[in-house]
Amino acid sequence: MDAARLKQSWSLVAAHGDQVPLYFYSMLFLSHPETRQMFPTNMAGQRDRLVTALGHIVSHVDQVDSLVGFLQDLGADHRKFAVRPEHYPAVGEALVATLQHFLGEAWTDELAQDWTAAYGLVSQVMIDAAQAAEAVNPPWWVAEVLGHERRAFDLAVLTLRPQYLLPFAPGQSIGVSHPAVRAWRYYSPANAPRADGTLELHVRAAPGGAVSSRLVYGCAVGDQVHLAAPVGDRLTLWPAGTSDLLLLGSGTGWAPLKSLVEQVAAEGSRRRVDLYVGARSPGEFYDNEAIEKLAASYPWLAVTYVVGMDLQRPGEFGHVVDRALADGDWRSRHVYICGSDEMVNHSVTTLTRTGYHQGQLHHEGFGKHWYGPTWRTATASDDSGGVR
Predict the structure, then answer these.
(1) pTM exceeds 0.85
(2) Measuring CA to CA, how many Å separate 284 from each of 38, 210, 302?
């Protein structure tokens, strides 16, 4: 198997853009129509995820150690789509047909052998990981909606009770799906693990978001949702750590930060924690009661609200990170950042320019999640699983 040849051929195919996943899924569904029910009705997002996933695999095909862990996560997580070992050959056939179509005269017997061998290795790692995961976790958990509170027109706070314990670490993300929607979206619980196993989710309905819209507008107490195993470690803390923290959040990015505050409280570690919570206007602070309760309960926690829109300065927008830097020098602390891509990008850029090093800046990454957040594990530079 020639890694360079694989990479070169994939770059030629990927240059065709959206035509590639469109052709691939057309081939897959025409030749194996039974696979169509495993995918969401709206395939636009799925097409993007396919190209990104294949690009990541091919670009790391000569880095076996990093790729294996990525594929194992992918294989185990695919169980929530009811993917079985017998489905992998169908995908392989459609992939080879797609590559042959777009490469045209550049397609050779050697390339066919390379891609067949590469896909065989990829699929076997994923199948083995899925089978190993069966002994640890179910493909998904069924959870009952115990609470559904609308905090704004497009935002709801949900309390869920899984049928059996779903273990997770504060800062991780959990896949969520509604039985009526063949799609998954990842959310970070807004609580540390509880004795009763319940989870709190903060959900804002995204334009065109099938899962988020269903959870906000079409979900009620007593309904059931499906939950997938937790993933990601870029926002997690080591238990019983000692590092003081600076937490920067905006919008529903407050949710994972809330879970970290609860973890610090449960550990009794007495870290110093300064929390900056931002919103575009005062009316968009949707969880003030919980924030104020935490601040009143723990003397080591200081809370600052940052309003983005200043009526006295029309046209200007205040960022959480700018306010935090104006208040003090936090370079001795680990900084956790959660919010929109724009907010995270601005915060990381500003902090780096000011002298903060990458090892102390913790965030999930930028861009749309092509396959939930399983890529976080693959791209994270910190192999320790969290910060001390």
Answers:
(1) no
(2) 37, 23, 20
